[in-house]
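Hallway conversation turned thread

IA: we were arguing at lunch whether anyone had actually written out MBL fold metallo-hydrolase end to end. Turns out nobody had. So, for the record, here is the sequence (268 residues) and right after it the structure tokens. Reply here if something looks off.
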Amino acid sequence: MVPHEQLSREFFAIAPDIAYLRTVLVNVVFIGAPGAGDRNWVLVDTGVFGSHDSIVRAAASRFGEGARPAAIIQTHGHFDHVGSLETLAGEWDAPVYAHSEELPFLSGQESYAPPDTAADGGIIPKLSGLFPRSPVNVAERLRALPPDRRVPPLLGWEWIHTPGHSPGHISLWREVDRTLVVGDAFITTGQESAYEVAAQTLEMHGPPRYFTSDWIAAGTSVTNLAALEPKLAITGHGRAVGGPRSIEALRQLADGFMQIAPPAHLAS
């Protein structure tokens, strides 16, 4: 278990320069030193619709009143990760970075495929047909991450293409301390179960079943991330994890991915 310093009710520091806010359904990650000030930190993902106020409050408490991010980085464009993106990007006049294959879902051009409402694991897949699939539009501020894998506002970090959950899904990696911001490439709670989401039951899972479009690619992504042996991993859903037990759990997930992760009607 990673030590969590509780900054407020749902806001936790897990490293000197990393904190995350648990919004409804999903985590939002803040990278930057406390008190960093204006344009000296980065926001990763923007939660569900209605998360704006809690994100702004958390940013002010962490970095200083009125401190805007140098950039917003989107791991992908699913509704629970972009709910406040248009509002925050406009209010903060911040560039938005994402993988080139994810840009159509962030520029108003393309909707995601329908969810798999037959996925097992709980009530949420059955409700997923009601979830928004239409793209947001931040085209004016949208930029593709550079092909050399740099993350322009974040020295020492690189992005890793981790497709499967979505075509342009990315994770962020810092080699010096083996820290991984995962997005939904893998998660640490059973996102299909309303009970597990509420209780934050700590388990290693593949990406959310109802919105994952390519299970072969998703398995390759998990295998690649497991090979990094991250000392600290913060996922889009569930608690941050770290240490030898989490490395072993991630390795086991990778080794048995196609038997463990996909919906039962697709598992091999």
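OS: looked through it. Residues 5-260 form a domain with the Metallo-beta-lactamase; Chain A fold (CATH 3.60.15.10).
IA: good, adding that to the notes. The chain has one domain: 5-260.
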